[in-house]
Amino acid sequence: MKYIKSILKILLGIIVLLTLVFFVVKTIYSKDLPQGQKGPEADQMAQKMLKAINFNAFDTLPYMQWSFRGEHHFVYNKANNTARISWDDNEVHLKMDEIKGVAKVNGQEVTDDLADKLVQKAWSHWCNDSFWFNAPSKVFDTGTERSIVTNGDGSKSLLVTYSGGGVTPGDSYLWHLDEDGLPNCYQMWTKIIPIGGISSSWDNWVELPNGAKISSFHNIGGKMPLEIKDIKGGFSWSDLGFDKNPIQI
């Protein structure tokens, strides 16, 4: 019993120490969400960013494919908002509008609670990974608010707040653009990351055959690389290498 009490005291000490370290790090590195000015200038900056990534070209592509960090794999039919989302031994054919779908494990369809869990997991992957895939295209999504933030050096950046949608409404992103409007990084204020204002790069822009641009590499906080791989877009399933529609729903 005495030995167990000693172990518990050590564990409690470690927890207290880690908690203190967390609050010290948060106090030093976390930044407050800046206040921006809403209005036409913010919308104009957002439109400039859309032009820089050639969103009009992206919007014409009915079929997309990519993978997130080589772990989650997506095939997307924009025409009817359905997707095939696969990871590990799991595969979900998902109707995004209804958050319903068909779930498979090792190629075999599953039902009941397991199917529901996989569908919800696929939806969570979609919300996170599709945002990293092409967040700039979402600046005018329903529920977004745009404002201009003037930085300390006098430059201006675009603050976008999502009041609804996805799985983490309320998140905000401060976009920093180059002279042409192409994003080079953003700072994040999100529920999932406890340190406010942490930055992520938007690098290695890939140009699809019709001119749409997708960033294929991000570096979060300068220490966490995140790659978007296998990026394809097309006007037919054959453009993506499929003989027929791979989304079975």
The count of helical stretches stands at: 4
Order of helices and strands: HHHEEEEEEHEEEEEEEE
Can you count the beta strands? 14
Spatial shape: globular
Structural class: alpha+beta
Rg, rounded, reads 21 Å
Low-confidence parts lasting 5 or more residues at pLDDT below 50? 3-28
* Mean pLDDT over all positions: 88
Instruction: List the strand order in the largest sheet.
Output: 6-5-4-3-2-1-14-13-12
Task: Describe the sheet with the most strands.
Answer: 9 strands, antiparallel
Assembly category: single chain
Beta-strand residue percentage: 35-45%
The percent range for helix content is 25-40%
Task: Give a verbal description of the structure.
The structure is a single chain. With 249 residues, the protein is of the alpha+beta class. It contains four helices and 14 strands. The protein has helices at residues 2-29, 40-52, 55-60, 112-134, and strands at 63-68, 72-77, 82-87, 90-95, 100-105, 108-110, 144-150, 156-162, 172-177, 183-189, 198-201, 203-207, 213-220, 224-234. It has a nine-stranded antiparallel beta sheet, covered by helices on one side. A hairpin with a 2-residue loop joins strand 5 and strand 6. The longest helix has 28 residues, at 2-29.
